[in-house]
Specification:
The structure holds two protein chains of two kinds.
Chain A (H helix, E strand, L loop, with lengths): L14 E3 L20 E3 L16 E4 L2 E4 L8 H14 L3 E6 L4 H12 L6 E5 L16 H14 L5 E6 L6 H10 L4 E4 L3 E4 L5 E5 L4 H14 L5 E4 L5 H9 L4 E4 L1 H5 L3 H12 L1
Parallel strand pairs in A: 1-2, 1-12, 2-5, 5-6, 6-7, 7-8, 8-11, 11-12
Antiparallel strand pairs in A: 3-4, 4-10, 9-10
Helix pairs in contact in A: 2-3, 3-4
Chain B lengths: L2 E5 L2 E7 L3 H4 L5 E4 L9 E12 L2 E8 L4 H7 L10 E4 L12 E6 L4 H12 L4 E7 L8 H7 L2 E6 L6 E2 L3 H10 L4 E6 L1 H13 L4 E5 L14 E5 L5 E5 L6 E3 L10
Parallel strand pairs in B: 7-8, 7-11, 8-9, 9-10, 11-12
Antiparallel strand pairs in B: 1-2, 2-5, 3-4, 3-6, 4-5, 12-15, 13-14
Helix pairs in contact in B: 5-6
Chain lengths: ~280, ~260
């Protein structure tokens, strides 16, 4: 299927791997067929990030708290060592990335523009601790739009441009409108709620605990701005949840935390959706 | 879940696990999570496997009911179905030549060493096993080990069985007396650190199976990183669940571990 707003990102089914929960793809490969699967990479940055202090992931009732700190090898290493493998495996690869300045957004997009096999990018504006990881502060819709515009200018027109925004039911519409006007093809609503680790460090909260919040954000956005394609992400563990998001108006969904709990989850979801479609 | 046996203070759980025994290597583990509201994985060493029991392929894991997640696992009723993923992780590397090996474990961390001893014996490596525990109740697999390996040395902190003390007190002398060419150990970083450093100072290569919290067990979450130093002397981070849990002892940056 070619969902509205996803451009070159053609999906065989509406379930994608969310950023940060599919590893490099190699770890997921024993549990799910990557061929034809929409795969969003962990968020990549200009330079390698060693990540944050331990513990980085702890459980919270019905969710996981994470402060991984954008642990990644840097975009150039990813393009050289990880992307070719993912493309060979047949994954429909979407690179998630974030930058510290508008100029760096342009620079990273320029690197991505010619990456062989890439079908799209996802600008990560939903980091729960942007300051802590040195990311460009995109809390204000104007700033979010500036970042997306910088990416749009460098990105070939046929590549999908997804923008991940915070699942904030109160402010999601203004941010989504701003990034859509700046050139986003679709908005990914989901990702982590800003939270704190038991020791007080900034963290993100993901998993079933946040699903009602993400659902509210998706519903609000679809109702208020139906012209914006929405990809829903947050707390999916059953095909029922997928159907709920699609019924709420999402064009596709992403599965993240559920994979940490059960790496075969996507296989099961796709099977269940086919059974009952 | 087929059966729950007692081993002193521990429980030995037998589980029907199709596919796991065939891929099992000593040092690998399985993960399971307590439920819908507690999502982080709990990792368990695979203690023993039986590819063809009366119940089909089965595995045994050792659980300490005194630990929070161990209590959940040990209290599962026989017949309960749980979602297990495994075998996961990188196993112990076996020597190509028959060399003497010293295996060191304390408490429930002896679990992965028994199957390792079997495989070493199959390769004609003389095996010495050093088993430690708080007290007699926390000794694991000593009787089975005596049938399996050349020498078993037991150490308890309260002196109730064998020597009084901790395993680190005996590693140096056993390395020398057994002429060990390799040391294998498993356990939490604070427990295996001393053992690995004694091996390093004796110039004996060590294989350390680290027991650290692994929130997913599959390498997806990057939540169990261990600082190591590569062959090129460059510091790196590896995931205990994927590049480990078994790592060469001299590569681990112990200062950076909790």
């Amino acid at each position: 299927m070619s969902a509205p707003g996803l451009g070159a990102l053609r999906l065989d089914h509406p379930v994608m791997v969310a950023s940060g929960c599919g590893g490099t793809g190699r770890e997921l490969a024993p549990f799910v067929d990557l061929d034809g699967l929409g795969f969003v990479t962990r968020t990549l940055t200009r330079h390698p990030h060693p990540g944050g202090a331990m513990p980085r992931v702890v459980e919270s009732p019905s969710g996981l708290l994470h402060a991984v700190g954008l642990h990644n090898p840097g975009l150039e290493v990813f393009l050289a060592e990880e992307l070719p493998w993912l493309v060979r495996a047949g994954a429909r690869v979407v690179v998630s990335f974030c930058a510290s300045t508008l100029g760096e957004y342009a620079e990273l997009t320029h690197l991505l523009a010619s990456a062989p096999g890439l079908v799209g990018v996802e600008v990560n504006l939903s980091s729960p601790d942007a300051d802590g990881v040195g990311a460009f502060d995109a809390r204000e819709p104007f700033h979010a739009a500036s970042a997306v515009a910088a990416v749009r200018r460098e990105l070939p027109a046929d590549l999908a441009l997804l923008v991940k925004v915070r699942p904030d039911p109160v402010r999601v519409v203004e941010t989504a409108r701003a990034v859509r006007d700046a050139g986003a093809g679709a908005v990914v609503v989901g990702g982590a709620l800003a939270a704190a680790m038991p020791d007080g460090r900034p963290a993100g909260l993901s998993g079933p605990a946040v699903r009602p919040v993400a659902t509210a954000a998706v519903r609000t956005l679809v109702r208020t701005a139906p012209e914006i394609p929405v990809v829903a992400c947050g707390g999916i563990t059953t095909s029922e949840h997928v159907r709920d998001y699609l019924a709420a108006g999402a064009v596709a969904v992403q599965v993240g935390t559920g994979l940490l709990h059960d790496p075969t989850l996507i296989t099961r979801l796709v099977h269940d959706l086919e059974e009952t479609s | 879940m087929l059966a729950v046996g007692r081993a002193g203070a521990f429980r030995v759980l037998s589980l029907a696990a199709p596919g796991v025994p065939a891929a099992f290597r000593p040092g690998t583990f399985v993960v399971a999570s307590p439920g819908d509201d507690r999502l982080a994985a709990r990792a368990w060493w695979i203690h023993r496997v039986d590819p063809a029991s009366a119940f089909g392929p089965t595995i045994e894991v050792v659980v300490d009911p005194g630990s929070p997640s161990g209590a959940w696992f040990a209290d599962l009723a026989v017949g309960t179905r749980i979602a297990l993923t495994g075998p996961l992780g990188r196993p112990f590397t076996l020597p190509r030549q028959p060399v003497a090996a010293l295996l060191v474990g304390e408490g429930h961390a002896v679990a992965p060493l028994l199957a390792l001893a079997e495989r070493l014996r199959a390769r004609e490596c003389p095996v010495t096993l050093l088993v430690g525990a708080r007290d007699e109740k926390h000794l694991l697999a000593v009787r089975e080990a005596r049938r399996l390996v050349r020498q078993v040395v037991v150490v308890t902190e309260d002196g109730s069985v064998g020597h009084r003390g901790v395993v680190a007190d005996h590693v140096g002398s056993l390395l020398a007396s057994s002429s060990a060419g390799v040391l294998y150990t498993a356990g939490r970083p604070d427990a295996v650190r001393a053992v690995a450093s004694i091996a390093a100072s004796s110039d004996v290569p060590s294989q350390v199976a680290l027991e650290v919290p692994m929130p997913c067990g599959t390498g997806l979450c990057h939540g169990c990183v261990v600082a190591v130093v590569g062959d090129d002397a460059v510091p790196r981070q590896v995931r205990a669940c994927t590049e480990g849990p078994v790592l060469p002892g001299h590569r681990i940056d112990w200062e950076a571990l909790p």
